[in-house]
Specification:
Elements: E1 6-7, E2 32-33, E3 54-56, E4 59-63, E5 69-70, E6 78-86, E7 91-98, E8 104-111, E9 119-123, E10 126-130, E11 140-147, E12 150-156, E13 169-176, E14 182-189, E15 192-201, E16 206-207, E17 217-218, E18 226-228, E19 232-235, E20 242-245, E21 252-260, E22 265-272, E23 283-288, E24 321-328, E25 331-336, E26 339-345, E27 360-364, E28 370-379, H1 397-402, E29 418-428, E30 432-438, E31 441-448, E32 454-459, E33 467-470, H2 474-477, E34 488-494, E35 497-503, E36 505-516, H3 537-549, E37 561-569, E38 573-581, E39 584-593, E40 603-609, E41 617-620, E42 638-640, E43 644-646, E44 650-652, E45 655-662, E46 668-679, E47 690-697, E48 707-712, E49 715-723, E50 731-736, E51 739-741, H4 750-753, E52 762-763, E53 767-770, E54 773-777, E55 784-785, E56 788-793, E57 802-809
Parallel strand pairs: 1-8
Antiparallel strand pairs: 2-15, 3-4, 4-15, 5-14, 6-11, 6-15, 7-8, 7-14, 9-10, 11-12, 12-13, 16-28, 17-20, 18-19, 19-28, 20-27, 21-24, 21-28, 22-23, 22-27, 24-25, 25-26, 29-36, 30-35, 31-34, 31-36, 32-33, 32-35, 37-46, 38-45, 39-43, 39-44, 39-46, 40-41, 40-45, 42-43, 47-57, 48-56, 49-54, 49-55, ...
Length: 811
């Protein structure tokens, strides 16, 4: 049912929602703010981007040209309170949008009218005429209550602490709206207006703690670390792990209070599989007692641990803090002491969108005495929430490029992005040009042989540099992707041009790798001291780099698994261990085998996609997992956790198989392969445009042109693994579609790998040298070709065995 209401003046009243002792008023302890400082966070999740609005000192300002705003939250029963004002004949319009389809279940329109005209409040019960006095400062207040599928609106002309005079108050009551959950849409009609202090109060839900014992909770750690008290659960810090609910929850509003010892560390785990770990498989809302002056990081209170820093800080050290966590579909929000400190649409974040959407709620023992009380949970219906939350939007340049590190399937998309390289040498004190690039583009890798001198970056033809710094401080002034300083992984966008100069340098060689964009891609602006990377990308990239370095990755995510374990493969035999029907994408591949089996080239992996006559990948297994013989190291491609794991995505349309071949002279046992994969419903999905292909050549396979690798067809070159001990030759040149490309001569590999020529064990996020192997992955700026690829070697000894990796166009 649609209800239109025109209001002249509206004043908030005291209301209660829910039941029991925790009932509260609209501005009471349970109220949470729906505005986050001076940002539109929480209101930019609708079907179209928010445009035409401003947030100034927490006040939302806009006009009839502003796009409607849709809340990133939905409610069943709720009380909403706010202040509003308009200019002239302008009107505010509030719509209640039914979840999930977005249909209007109620509409409220209100504005300023002259007392002589009065106003008409329209409802299904008829019209009520009221004459209300004008507002001295233009601000009005309003309270809207929806309870049990019925909408009430209270209005009054006086402030809430005064009794309205006769004729100065009115109300609409018992307007039926149905029992569907709803989101709130805000819009202005016929002029400009402002809205402030928008707050919500939900029922507190059911208690999670019975006030006497830990019935309904469990932990794989020491249960005695958790002490039940009359009104709280106390973590006494004795190896308590996570205290976890027996029940699993999907969509909910969780509320609690906590008090932590000085300098303490804890967390709230949500949506985690029974034996999973929140920060990697579900989600952890971090709790950290630190000084208010501490910088906000991906580990601050209410950060989504490791992946997304909070919006602000509102916790109080060593005091009771009230936390509200709201989870619906992929949207996660958190409030501390009523302040919105976290909001994320995790469907749009590359690491978090693969997390579980249901699981236990838990409290973490992380080395600090922590008290928890008033634990309540209000469950919501299952589902992903409002459909409009997931309306696709054009990704920004940083999203298109940097997500390749965490989701290499993006490299299989024909997205129109290109790449290039510029190399230059610098010597002497005078200013020299290192690079002159044309946009729209972004520099993503900087490799150098010296950190002496002063750099200057001139953007888009500007006469003055937008950034100047000493070369050894470059990683502090540019966005740092992961942890590598040399080679430096970064993201420096420019629209028209970028000129980089250096002065006061000793002998130094520089290599800049960059990505080019179509004009249609929304490109960020670089500003010194400000982020030019989409929110959540840099912390997520650091988290992934760090986690793979520890041998950790998504082990309990919701994606299905396939494969066989504990197989015995006879000599000169092959075993089929994975057989999948498409369409789909293998997200990671894990080989379980004795480490000694990776000391030579006798154990092979053979991957075949879509029943092609020859394998798309056929290589000795150890080439597929470079650097792991020396243990784990921070990177974006491989890790070792109960098996050697490669994170490169393998798209397929009809079928994908993985076989392990034993080319040795004795049986091998045990051998197993596990893959994590996602099923796709559309064989025309853009991510299926290319296949991961591995071209292996042994040292006897050397042509007269001395090529490291040659390939015909179209695709992207993403990696090369070579035997360093048997290959002293370097790179002479690169030919794409028969044309030589600049920047690819690296006789000693130093600028190409970003490591010292004589280093035998040096490993980085995308390159390294260890155990007789050297490798480089080109995930950020892969060379792209349409007809042919030829990476030529310098003159010298015979080339060693090598594996080249491509995403090639599907045949």
């Amino acid at each position: 049912m649609r209800v239109k209401t025109v209001l002249c003046a509206v004043v908030a009243c005291w209301v209660t929602v829910g039941g029991g002792a925790d009932e509260t008023r609209a501005d009471g302890a349970n109220a949470v703010s729906l505005f986050a400082g001076n940002s539109l966070t929480g209101w930019d999740d609708g079907g179209e981007p928010a445009k035409g609005w401003r947030m100034v000192d927490g006040v939302l300002q806009g006009d009839n040209n502003s796009t409607p705003l849709v809340s990133g939250w939905s409610w069943g029963d709720v009380t909403l309170s706010f202040r509003w004002k308009v200019q002239g004949a302008a009107l505010w319009r509030l719509r209640l949008l039914r979840v999930p389809d977005g249909e209007t279940i109620a509409e409220i329109v209100f504005g300023e009218k002259t007392p002589s005209r009065g106003i008409v409040v329209s409802s299904s019960k008829g019209n009520v005429k009221m004459i209300l006095p004008a507002s001295n400062d233009g601000w009005r207040t309003a309270t809207l209550t929806r309870h049990g599928g019925v909408l009430d609106l209270e209005t009054a002309a006086k402030s809430r602490d005064k009794t309205p005079a006769v004729g100065d108050a009115g109300s609409i009551r018992d307007v039926p709206t149905g029992d569907s959950r709803f989101c709130l849409e805000l819009a202005l009609l016929d002029g400009a207006g402002a809205l402030a202090d928008l707050k919500a109060v939900e029922p507190v839900g059911e208690p999670l703690y019975n006030g006497k014992d830990l019935t309904g909770w469990w932990t794989p750690g020491n249960i005695k670390s958790w002490k039940p008290n009359a009104d709280s659960i106390i973590c006494v810090n004795d190896n308590g792990n996570y205290l976890r609910t027996e029940r699993e929850f999907a969509n909910f509003t969780l509320s609690l209070e906590y008090r932590m010892a000085k300098g303490g560390n804890s967390g709230i785990g949500i949506r985690t599989a029974r034996d999973g770990w929140p920060s990697g498989d579900g989600m952890e809302l971090q709790m950290l007692d630190e000084p208010q002056t501490a910088p906000i990081t991906r580990h601050s209170t209410m950060a989504i641990y490791g992946n997304l820093e909070p919006l602000t800080r509102a916790d109080r050290s060593q005091e009771w803090n009230r936390v509200v966590v709201k989870a619906e579909g992929y949207l996660i929000s958190a409030w501390v002491n009523g302040v919105l400190v976290q909001h994320a649409n995790t469907a749009k974040l590359p690491e978090l969108r693969r997390r579980n959407l249901q699981g236990w709620i838990g409290l973490q023992d992380h080395g600090a005495r922590t008290e928890f009380r008033h634990l309540r949970v209000l469950e919501a219906v299952d589902g992903l929430g409002l459909q409009a939350w997931y309306t696709p939007r054009p990704p920004s340049g940083s999203q298109l490029v940097l997500e390749r590190l965490m989701n290499p399937e993006r490299l299989a998309v024909d997205d129109g992005l290109g790449s290039g390289v510029v190399e230059a040498s610098a010597a002497g004190k005078v200013e020299q040009i290192l690079a002159e690039l044309k946009g729209p583009a972004a520099v993503v890798t900087v490799s150098r042989t010296s950190v002496q001198g002063r750099l200057a970056f001139y953007f888009d033809g500007e006469a003055a540099p937008r950034l100047q710094c000493q070369a050894d401080k470059l990683d502090e002034r540019l966005p740092l992707v992961g942890q590598d300083r040399q080679p430096l992984l970064t993201y420096v966008p420019f629209h028209k041009s970028l000129k980089v100069t250096i002065s006061g340098a000793s002998d130094a060689d520089y290599r800049f790798e960059y990505v080019t964009f179509p004009e249609s891609v929304p490109l960020e602006d670089f500003a010194d001291g400000q982020s030019c990377v989409a929110r959540g990308l840099l912390p997520a990239l650091s988290y992934r780099d760090e986690q793979l370095g520890w041998g950790t990755h998504r082990e309990a995510d919701p994606l299905p698994r396939a494969g066989k374990q504990d197989q015995k493969i006879e000599e000169q035999s092959q075993a089929m261990l994975v057989d999948l029907e498409g369409p789909g994408i293998v997200e990671w591949t894990k080989l379980v085998a004795a480490p000694s089996l990776l000391d030579d080239d006798e154990l092979w992996l053979e991957v075949t996609a879509d029943d092609e006559s020859t394998p798309t990948i056929s290589t000795p297994a150890r080439y597929f997992f470079p650097g792991l013989a020396g243990g784990n190291y921070h990177n974006y491609v491989v890790t070792n956790r109960n098996g050697w794991t490669n994170m490169l995505a393998m798209p397929f349309v009809r079928r994908l198989t993985i076989a392990v071949s034993n080319r040795g002279r004795r049986p091998v046992h045990p051998v197993g392969v596990t893959v994590s994969y996602q099923r796709l419903g559309d064989s025309n999905d853009p991510r299926l445009a290319r296949r991961l292909r591995g071209v292996f050549m042994d040292e006897a396979d050397s042509s007269s042109e001395r090529s490291w690798v040659k390939q015909s067809g179209g695709g992207r070159f993403i990696g090369l693994v070579t035997q360093y001990g048997k290959a002293a030759a370097g790179v002479d040149s690169l030919l794409l579609d028969g044309q030589s490309r600049d920047g690819w001569r690296s006789a000693d590999w130093q600028t190409l790998l970003g490591i010292q020529p004589k280093a035998a064990d040096e490993r980085h996020s995308l390159s390294g040298r260890q155990g007789g192997f050297q490798w480089r992955f080109f995930l950020l700026a892969p060379p792209q070709f349409r007809e042919s690829f030829d990476l030529r070697a310098t003159q010298g000894p015979r080339l060693g065995n090598r594996l080249a990796l491509f995403y090639m166009d599907a045949e």
